[in-house]
Amino acid sequence: MVVDSPFFQRLRHINQLALSYLIYPGATHKRFEHSLGVMELAGRVFDVVTKQDNLTDKIRNLLPPLKHFSQLDYWKRVLRMAALCHDAGHLPFSHAAEHELLPQGWTHEKISREIIESPEMQAIWSAMTPPLRPEHITKLAVGAKHATDLQFSSWERVLSEIIVGDAFGVDRIDYLLRDSHHTGVAYGKFDHYRLIDELRILPSVENSSEPALGIKEGGIHSAESMALARYFMFSQVYFHPIRLIYDQHLRDFLIAWLSENKLFGGTFSTKLDNHLMTTDNEVNVAMRTAAFDSRKPGHHAARAILAHQHFKVLYERNPQDIKLNSEPGATIRDAAISKFGADAISYSNPKLKSVGADFPVQMRDDRVLAAIAVSDTLSLLKPRAIEYVYVKPERYDEAIKWLQENKEEILSTKGKAEDEGE
Question: Any idea what DSSP says for residue 50?
Fold first, then answer.
């Protein structure tokens, strides 16, 4: 019933990786199959961590609501439904323009919650045997970070980690494997079978009363592989410079299109009826119309996408330039804008934040240690700064020559001015 619901069927028309198919032709997969994969993986993890041998009395004492094993069937179904619905609130082209194009205070997680708790979905939850409580599904689907008004038991926190956790969330496991497969790169592959087999509910630290999703020592290399897969997928695929500039062109088009569209009034609608009717398909039609009609809002951005006339990379941050200037990309962007004008220059500085989250590891002698104390690999993975400066294609040759002649002066002048200010 959930899969057949309009809210879930809508995900057949939401690209997982936005416009990445313009760079990686196979990356046309949708949020629909990703959500099915997350549900399947969530069930696998649940079965492993709740095995009678794994869910020991010591661990069950950390989970007060779980009084006996007969409750597990209910919670497994809640977990699978939460996994299925965790992405139901995604906008067209997924993450490409979420922060700029939703009303203040709204996220796709909040829309997912609205869908889960809607009358249409409540009718489905209540028809199940046994009936499922929508607030339980919400908690597991979005996690404590996005449901701050709800009280989470320790059991619900652990179950939400299975889906959205930074260390072993199956949302992350699925998108790394799936995106790697469809883009045709090997970076995102790791032994997720071994990883899942070694997962356990553990004290978050030795002798803690707070449980967390952790791993046995025998699975630490699989966990390292997953962290490295994420690092390489972000640095090589998700933050590919041409993918980033296509995202920027898409944002520019959507801002213009939504501003002119009376149905939306400048942002995507959070009303579920409107959300249901807004997918990549509607945006693609509007974009194609605008690309061939200069009077339409967003014409230049649409043209850049559909005619492959995207801005070109003028500058990429590198270690040598950091010796001259702590923010070389932003400095060159400002100088380029002064030289060529704001409409000819674009800038992207995505943040590759925490690459590998810390988590508890059960050693062979039953001690529980922090992962960064056990793994040199995880302890060495650090956040990475990324900067790209782009220029209009017709100004590219001129801009490249200008930068070659002036880069060192631009970077050192900014650094000198800062030193004098001190």
Answer: T
Tell me the backbone φ, ψ of residue 295, rounded to 5 degrees. Answer: -85, -15
Q: Which helix (H) or strand (E) holds 27?
A: none
Question: Are 92 and 54 within 8 A, CB to CB?
Answer: no
Question: Which value, in Å, is the radius of gyration of the alpha carbons in the chain?
Answer: 24
List C-alpha distances in Å: 106 to 98, 100, 102, 103, 251: 9, 10, 6, 6, 17
Pairwise CA distance, residues 103 & 204, whole Å: 36
pLDDT, tens digit (0-9, with 9 covering 90-100), for 172-199: 999 999 999 999 999 899 999 999 999 9
Q: Look at the pTM and tell me if it is higher than 0.90.
A: yes
Of residues 351 and 4, which shows the higher confidence score? Answer: 4
How far apart are alpha carbons 377 and 357 in whole angstroms? 12
Read off the amino acid at residue 165: G
Domains and CATH numbers, the chain: 6-240 (1.10.3210.10), 242-351+386-421 (1.20.1250)
